[in-house]
From TrEMBL:
It is found in: Endomembrane system; Endoplasmic reticulum membrane; Microsome membrane. It comes from Myotis brandtii (Brandt's bat). Pfam families: ERG4_ERG24. Keywords: Cholesterol biosynthesis, Cholesterol metabolism, Endoplasmic reticulum, Lipid biosynthesis, Lipid metabolism, Membrane, Oxidoreductase, Steroid biosynthesis, Steroid metabolism, Sterol biosynthesis, Sterol metabolism, Transmembrane, Transmembrane helix. The chain crosses the membrane at residues 130-149, 161-180, 231-255. It comes from the Eukaryota. GO terms for cellular component: endoplasmic reticulum membrane; nuclear inner membrane. It catalyses: 5alpha-cholest-8,14-dien-3beta-ol + NADPH + H(+) = 5alpha-cholest-8-en-3beta-ol + NADP(+); 4,4-dimethyl-8,14-cholestadien-3beta-ol + NADPH + H(+) = 4,4-dimethyl-5alpha-cholest-8-en-3beta-ol + NADP(+); 4,4-dimethyl-5alpha-cholesta-8,24-dien-3beta-ol + NADP(+) = 4,4-dimethyl-5alpha-cholesta-8,14,24-trien-3beta-ol + NADPH + H(+). This is Delta(14)-sterol reductase TM7SF2. The lineage of its organism: Eukaryota, Metazoa, Chordata, Craniata, Vertebrata. Pathway: Steroid biosynthesis; cholesterol biosynthesis. Catalyzes the reduction of the C14-unsaturated bond of lanosterol, as part of the metabolic pathway leading to cholesterol biosynthesis. Its main location: membrane.
Length: 294
């Protein structure tokens, strides 16, 4: 049974991430200074091992971070979810509506990430953070085994879900996805080609670096509209599990903390990069993630 194997598998994934990061740290000792990440290059071995000394470690044309960000963890998460759905069908005759929703929403999220895989190239993980234990553990162990907690919960705690409630939850997920995809695609298109017809009409602020900042469209609503969409989806993934237990809301709570911290880190980096232009952007778009609230 997969459910009995989840804990041992999670241990093996953690051990693999540890050994892998150790090899990456040793490899990074021989890397040229130009290949090192700004954050993981402190000289303190434990700190650098954790944060990642090299920015984008590669073996030949194989990019370790790009691969790990998208393939093993995300696909593993979907496979665990599917196995739990099949196990529920064996146990109760058919998968519950709640299990279908959780599987469907999370399959959409992973399918979207793989479909738009080149968009990961403009994210902070790729452009700024080194590849060390933090990211390797996150990609290989944390994502598949904790992001599947809702499906794991549903296997042991079946939830009655009526069609009207399910429809409202689908609507919440659709709104979150619309904002998330719209914001990420808009920024990605703009960064690749600011003259693309879909973004050419948007208002921008010029910066001293020559790059521009969007100040209308999704990025004129709040400073991180993609995080807002992601959080709305996170809520929709928990709602099918009912409100009797905190466990299915673990992802929503953890993810809120992660994104608030991530947003603060990104603000710091953007302030350093863009200086006065960033301050002007913050003046024009005062809210960080949630309009009129935060
Ligand atoms: P973003 O994709 O939001 O990238 C931030 C960068 O975007 C900034 O550093 C800046 O870089 C650029 N930027 C910021 N404001 C503007 C603007 N107004 N106009 C143009 N460019 C701007 O960051 P993340 O990498 O954190 O997130 C990517 C996606 O991944 C998000 O949807 C997030 O929710 C998701 N995510 C999901 C996780 C999960 O576990 N499910 C974990 C982490 C993230 P520059 O100017 O240099 O281009």
């Amino acid at each position: 049974m997969l459910t009995e194997m989840l804990l041992p598998l999670a241990w093996v994934a953690t051990l693999t991430a540890f050994i892998f990061s150790l090899l990456l740290y040793l490899k990074a000792l021989m890397a040229p200074a130009s290949a090192l990440a700004p954050g993981g290059n402190s000289g303190n071995p434990v700190y650098d091992f954790f944060l990642g000394r090299e920015l984008n470690p590669r073996f030949g044309s194989f990019d370790c971070k790009y691969f790990c960000e998208l393939r093993p963890g995300l696909i593993g998460w979907v496979l665990i979810n599917l196995a739990l759905l099949v196990q529920e069908a064996e146990l109760r005759g058919s998968p519950s509506l709640a299990m279908w929703l959780v599987n469907g929403f999370q399959l959409l999220y992973v399918g979207d990430a793989l479909w738009h895989e080149e968009a990961v190239l403009t994210t902070m993980d790729i452009t700024h953070d080194g590849f060390g234990f933090m990211l390797a553990f996150g990609d290989l162990a944390w994502v598949p085994f904790t992001y599947s907690l809702q499906a794991q919960f549903l296997l042991y705690h079946p939830q009655p879900l009526e069609l009207p409630t399910a429809s409202v939850i689908c609507l919440v997920n659709a709104v979150g996805y619309y904002i998330f995809r719209g914001a990420n695609s808009q920024k990605n298109t703009f960064r690749k080609n600011p003259s693309d017809p879909s973004v050419a009409g948007l208002e921008t602020i010029s910066t001293a670096t020559g790059r521009q900042l969007l100040v209308s469209g999704w990025w004129g609503m709040v400073r991180h509209p993609n995080y807002l969409g992601d959080l709305i989806m996170a809520l929709a993934w928990s709602l099918p599990c009912g409100v009797s237990h905190l466990l299915p809301y673990f992802y929503l709570l953890y993810f809120t903390a992660l994104l608030v911290h991530r947003e603060a880190r990104d603000e710091q980096q953007c302030l350093q990069k863009y200086g006065l232009a960033w301050r002007e952007y913050c003046r024009r778009v005062p809210y960080r993630i949630v309009p009129y609230i935060y």
